[in-house]
Specification:
- The protein is globular and about 50 Å long.
- It is an all-alpha fold.
- It has helices at residues 3-21, 30-51, 60-84, 90-97, 100-112, 118-134, 146-174, 179-201, 211-239, 241-244, 247-262, 269-285.
- It starts with a helix and ends in a 15-residue tail after the last helix.
């Protein structure tokens, strides 16, 4: 599948999971919900591998790296993200997530010794400005308190671990590791860490009674985890973790469109301008809008 189509799949699905996640709050602890989600996703991937007769045997050094991907990307990232959304509004989460592109670029440079691409940095900067404009009115609702600091701390931790997991994933994929098998093992390791965290934190195992919880869980598992993460990792393999991170700047636009339909979100002038800037930034980051090139910063 082509990179633009994969990018579109990820953006459309993850843009809609923001709405689905809201149905996960209430009866079940957020970390336990994440554990349920990735346990179901890893089981589906296991069944798919067995059905397609795909070998799950991988070298030990790849397993070591996948343990870290599981811990960073599927355990710490999502656990902290779910926690942050209980304390801060989505506008802050969206703006902070835009900084993920910079973190990916820097970690990719330090850990993989790959060059910092000028067009990605320019695109990321435009994307952050655009996201800020889109959510500008929402920031007036923010009041400084301990919960705000707590929510921001959770979100910062979430995006750092997501970036670290992305870069380690790129290293794994550089070795020629198949995407499906990598996702299965990384999710499985992540599930182990999640259930350990649940057990040691004293969280009560709950069987939710709300049907909406199960419907949203189905969507988050099949589409948000199995399909979207498969497409995302294929993009990492084809384009690099720095460019792919721009996904986090585009899918809030999809979330806004859905919010318009289901929650009565009202668009304003800054939002339209912000969307245009985000899309221009995306075009630059992906090389679709050419810039006067500077030499990439290369490793020594």
């Amino acid at each position: 599948m082509s990179s633009p189509l994969l990018f579109l799949v990820v953006v459309l699905i993850w843009g809609s999971t923001w709405l689905a996640i809201t149905f996960q709050f209430g009866e079940v602890d957020p970390v336990l919900s994440v554990a349920y989600r990735f346990f179901a996703a890893s089981f589906i991937l296991f069944c798919y591998c067995k059905f397609k007769k795909l070998s799950l045997s991988l070298p030990t050094h790849i397993h070591v790296k996948m343990v870290f991907v599981g811990l960073c990307l599927y355990t710490m990232d999502y656990s902290l993200l779910y926690q942050s959304q209980q304390y801060i509004i989505s506008a802050i989460v969206a703006l902070m997530s835009s900084g993920m592109v910079y973190i990916n670029v820097l970690l990719r440079r330090v850990l993989l010794k790959k060059p910092i691409r000028f067009e990605v940095m320019v695109g990321a900067t435009l994307g952050m400005i655009g996201i800020g404009l889109i959510f500008l009115p929402e920031f007036s609702k923010v009041t400084a308190n301990d919960y705000l600091v707590l929510g921001i701390s959770f979100a910062l931790g979430s995006f750092f671990f997501a970036s670290l997991g992305n870069v380690i994933s790129e290293r794994i994929l550089d070795h020629g590791t198949p995407v499906i098998q990598m996702n299965f093992w990384a999710m499985s390791y992540g599930v182990v860490f999640l259930f350990i965290a649940v057990l040691f934190s004293g969280v009560e195992f709950v069987i939710p009674s709300n049907p909406n919880y199960y419907l949203s869980m189905f969507y988050l598992t099949v589409f948000g985890s199995v399909i979207a993460f498969g497409a995302y990792m294929q993009l990492v393999k084809q384009m690099g973790s720095d460019k792919v991170a721009y996904v986090v700047l585009v899918y809030p636009i999809v979330a806004l469109i859905l919010s318009t339909i289901f929650e009565g979100y009202e668009w304003h002038t800054e939002a339209f301008v912000g969307v245009a800037i985000v899309l221009i930034g995306n075009g630059i980051a992906m090389g679709k809008i050419p810039l006067k090139r500077k030499t990439d910063i290369k490793s020594g």
